[in-house]
Amino acid sequence: MWKPDRQSKQPLYEQIADHLERRISYGEFPPGSLLPSERKLAEQLGVNRSTVVQSFAELRSMGIIESRTGSGTRVSKYKWGITPKHTPNWSRYAEGGSFLPNQPFMRRIRKALTEHPSLIDFASGELSKDLSPIDEITTLLNEPQSISYLGYDNPQGYTPLRQALVSYLRDYRGIQTTESSILITSGSQQSLYLITQCLLSPGDAVAIEDPSYCYSLPMFQSAGLRLFRLPVDQDGARPEDIRTLYKKHRIKMVFINPNFQNPTGTVLKAEQRIQLLNIASELGLPIVEDDPFSLTAYKETPPSPLKSIDSTGSILHIGSFSKIAASGLRIGWMVAPHTIVERLADARQQMDFGLSVIPQQVAAQFLKSPYVEPHLDRLRMNLLFRRDLLIEALEKELPGLVCYTIPQGGLHMWCKLVPKVHDGKLLEEAIKNGVVFVPGSVYGSDSGFVRFTFARPQVEEISSGVSKFAKALQNLTNNRRE
Amino acid sequence: MWKPDRQSKQPLYEQIADHLERRISYGEFPPGSLLPSERKLAEQLGVNRSTVVQSFAELRSMGIIESRTGSGTRVSKYKWGITPKHTPNWSRYAEGGSFLPNQPFMRRIRKALTEHPSLIDFASGELSKDLSPIDEITTLLNEPQSISYLGYDNPQGYTPLRQALVSYLRDYRGIQTTESSILITSGSQQSLYLITQCLLSPGDAVAIEDPSYCYSLPMFQSAGLRLFRLPVDQDGARPEDIRTLYKKHRIKMVFINPNFQNPTGTVLKAEQRIQLLNIASELGLPIVEDDPFSLTAYKETPPSPLKSIDSTGSILHIGSFSKIAASGLRIGWMVAPHTIVERLADARQQMDFGLSVIPQQVAAQFLKSPYVEPHLDRLRMNLLFRRDLLIEALEKELPGLVCYTIPQGGLHMWCKLVPKVHDGKLLEEAIKNGVVFVPGSVYGSDSGFVRFTFARPQVEEISSGVSKFAKALQNLTNNRRE
Ligand SMILES: Cc1ncc(COP(=O)(O)O)c(C=O)c1O
Ligand SMILES: Cc1ncc(COP(=O)(O)O)c(C=O)c1O
User: Fold this and answer.
1) What ipTM goes with this model?
2) Domains and CATH numbers, chain B
3) Pocket around ligand 2: residues whose beta carbon is below 6 Å from it?
């Protein structure tokens, strides 16, 4: 993002006025459109509000913008062209479509992180740079690369990657499949998107866990689905609840994240898995198994996927490199019956014509390299270390103020706050104090929870991050008492 | 795709039976699901139908599959599990969703190309391998690469790529913009998809050219849009038609491919551009300018984009590397007002969390390299050469049987056939004779046209491809006379 140059001789307000004039003349802010507020711009550009006030005054004096009290500052319609012209009402268009915007809390967090990169980040659900196999991938990239094809590829995904995944799924996840039944997607996210868009119709009822990562995704509501809750306790979701929902609402699909669930860290109990599969096959009900975390199991063997014991072909199994290697690779996959893979591969042609061959080639090389096992070992050890650092910090900084179950895998810790505080206020106060987290309400119906992702901050940030969080919590609870 | 091993001692039919049994046991063909027909399988596996008949007999004798006359061969429900279990009705699910499947002709072509890779390909709208800068990209990849970040990236796209595009758009396309107004997408395709999904609502009326690439995309119908035609003649679409459509149907957006239009190769006339922009701004109507071909202009300077003379911010400008570098990179971009870029970046988070950093890094390196200009020169020269080869072959093989306007840029040649033949029959006959093309009806309402992509086949295939096509045409017209 552009920032004014503090070394330059040109005054800041002039630089900003020039920059805005340029963007207006390029059509980025068309005639009649609303500019960001003075306060917002000042925050984005890292200057005093008074500087922006001066820049706006400058642009106003040139007739480029107009301000009216209460309705903000707009680009003038008359300056640009001899006769008054109409510009499309872009903000109306931006409200169109069936796509709901992202969760306000998620947008707020993203914005805070963009504007203040120094915030300690317990919010982004991913690995920190040093936990990703960046060196390994760089080494692979620096081996002589040859590209044999750069045309439109098979819409199911790059064949050598699908072949490598057949071995990977067999060796690491106990899943037997062939390359014809694998669809490569842009992370698990695109697998979920394809399922909700192409296999379900608006009005269909589906069951999702509560709390669940899925609630953070307006994707489900955008697709017009009716969502029903499967409460998650220490042993995961209760399969009997599925039968009840089926009877009541004719649910058409179940979304489940059985291993180190996001956000709770829960592992679905072995008996419940069998029961779940029995109910699914009894009802002819498809289950989407979203399984990105299993290989992070800190000490035990990773839990087996439902897919590995699915004898009726009821499971759509989704995996990803995001949580065990790097989210910026954007490589995920789905293992599904042939009809479904064909249908989704066909539909995705209309959306993006498939993924770039290059990261798929890198991912295939990584899978075939000797780096996978050592990387996973290192990852597990480091995650465990960070989890313990987080627990230590919570015990020190927030004694008696948080409850949690200690997760045995995954990137997150799900904490119930003992003091009652307002989700949004706590987030704002935390941002002020230099730390972000995800308010639990993003993941479903219960409030008073917080998700801390301990995989994302630097090791040395964990304890100071918690202390900043504690400060924020204290500020709020103190204020309330006053 | 799996094929039986002809070197193996195990008989072909047994290998096929084993392979099918494995896939059935993996759940790829769940109990009760339909297997491909014997004829289809034989074609896919490159064996005689009688071999597949034998494999099916083998599987039937083991109780794994069941055939019933008239309803095909299904996986047995009773073999797998002690009690009969239900498998989700996957084919019903595959029919769900608002996503229409791809055009039957397009599916047919893709299938033919997968099964018979030796077909001469006048159908795929892309560059052949030797026209893509694969060597240049390989060289760049083989320079020491460093990856500094592999996390979830800015949803607008990798910043260095957006920065490189600012210079590229200025130098090559005369477009002034800043990185804040660029959205990186998976080719132009995803830009179109985001626009139809997020800025328009079901029931909205839009105008598209006729013929147009857009008609080949069920994307528009999937979004529930009502499509209205802007007939394209030698000078492109007539802007006055837009006013008429607006009055009649309140169209909300216009999609246009003004430079070397796909499929006709037409360039929108200069006067009509000004008129178009005037009408757009008069009506406050947004125009989507899909501009992938301009830099292929064989001899003249590439036509300027509408965006470069858009003073009211009415244009959403879409570009891509697919037609000037390599479609497998999957890198495209949109230049749009700020509000729109923000909205689409937010929505695409729900679909795929953005593109992989790696191809974006490669694309940025390519743009900053000294390779762009020489590559484009070579590309233009080669396209011109191929275009002339195609014309020569058409004149020789089909004298008086085709009419066309000679394109001055782009990858395609749009030909009207003088003899009246059935689109689908001609395609089948062509496939039999070893060549594929796209039937003109895929692009809109007029029939009796054919699109030949001369950029895709090898140079030495062009004349033999046309002669195979001529043979197919002759077979059909002769048959008819009998
Ligand atoms: C349970 C779960 N599923 C899917 C995703 C999407 O991740 P990706 O698309 O990067 O694989 C996430 C990311 O947070 C997740 O936690
Ligand atoms: C006019 C036009 N627009 C868009 C596309 C989509 O191409 P891509 O997504 O590869 O940029 C094509 C491809 O054929 C095209 O011809």
Assistant:
1) 0.88
2) 12-95 (1.10.10.10), 104-130+374-481 (3.90.1150.10), 134-370 (3.40.640.10)
3) A 353; B 125, 187-189, 213, 257, 262, 290, 292, 320, 322, 327, 332
